[in-house]
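Consider the tokenized backbone below.
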């Protein structure tokens, strides 16, 4: 049986009359990459801040490494790393000095070898003397990650680590996370990007403070017995509006294509084709493709509303 490293039972947190987290339950096993995904306001950041001991829960029980986070906050914080949404390092300190500062905070002695390893790992070695304020967005995130790893945490918490990061840096960041998993670190992350969630071992889809699905990405998608027809056509907005008005199908627009979620392609595509052609919309291509996690998330949110 896999060892549980994070246990959440009946977790609730409110801000005034706003219920940010509504009694969630989940368990994360050692060495897992676990992702909590959802839109802004879903309760992801609140949950991760409670797990890090930065917020107190209103109700429920949270255990990390077998110990209650409320009763053992300081002890647990020495064994975890946390990378917040906002860049929170010192802009007037160099890359080296920021890592040194965090080593001091965590009481890490003889940190120089570890710092060099992290700079190599994050590809920041050529920039070690550069002030943090003068780094690019992606490099700032890598520095923040290096600072959160200086004390060799057992669990790494990442709150939307790639938001606002360019695609190349985002890819580099994921390569780094993949290498961390090989070292046995447990990673708990939040993201608004469903394509990132696809890379994780398990995913909790969150909306309005509740977990609406929790499993591996593959199983979450398999639980929805629908087909996805991807249509590329002229006048995408008009086509989307017509299909919403004249059918009961779920219509999702992604850039230059429309995803139509149906029960059965053979029976239902002719109706879709007829509506579009009658309204002089040219179908450039169509195909049945597997449901993405994004398709499923939108489907579940609509179903719940």
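A designed sequence for it:
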């Amino acid at each position: 049986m896999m060892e549980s490293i994070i246990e959440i039972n009946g977790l609730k947190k409110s801000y005034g009359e706003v219920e940010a987290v509504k009694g969630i339950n989940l368990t994360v096993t050692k060495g897992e990459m676990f992702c909590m995904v959802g839109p802004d306001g879903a309760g992801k950041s609140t949950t991760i801040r409670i797990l890090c001991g930065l917020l107190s829960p209103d109700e429920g029980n949270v255990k990390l490494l077998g110990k209650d986070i409320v009763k053992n906050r300081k002890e647990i914080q020495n064994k975890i790393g946390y990378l917040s949404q906002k860049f929170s390092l010192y802009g007037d300190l160099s890359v080296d000095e920021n890592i040194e500062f965090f080593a001091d905070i965590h009481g890490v002695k003889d940190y120089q070898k570890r710092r060099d390893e992290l700079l190599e790992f994050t590809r920041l070695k050529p920039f070690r003397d550069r002030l943090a304020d003068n780094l690019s967005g992606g490099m700032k995130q890598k520095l923040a990650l290096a600072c959160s790893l200086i004390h060799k945490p057992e669990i790494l918490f990442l709150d939307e680590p790639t938001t606002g990061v360019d695609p190349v840096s985002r890819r580099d960041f994921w390569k780094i996370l993949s290498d961390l998993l090989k070292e046995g670190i447990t990673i708990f992350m939040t993201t608004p990007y469903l394509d990132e969630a696809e890379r994780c071992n398990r995913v909790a889809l969150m909306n309005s403070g509740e977990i609406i699905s929790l499993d591996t990405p593959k199983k979450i998608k398999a639980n929805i017995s629908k087909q996805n027809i991807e249509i590329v056509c002229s006048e995408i907005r008009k086509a989307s509006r017509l299909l919403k008005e004249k059918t009961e199908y779920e219509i999702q627009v992604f850039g230059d294509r429309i995803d139509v979620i149906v029960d059965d392609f053979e029976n239902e595509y002719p109706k879709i084709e007829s509506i579009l052609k009658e309204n002089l919309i040219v179908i450039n291509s169509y195909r049945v493709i597997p449901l993405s996690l994004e398709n499923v998330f939108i489907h579940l949110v609509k179903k719940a509303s």
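The chain has two domains: 4-218, 224-304.
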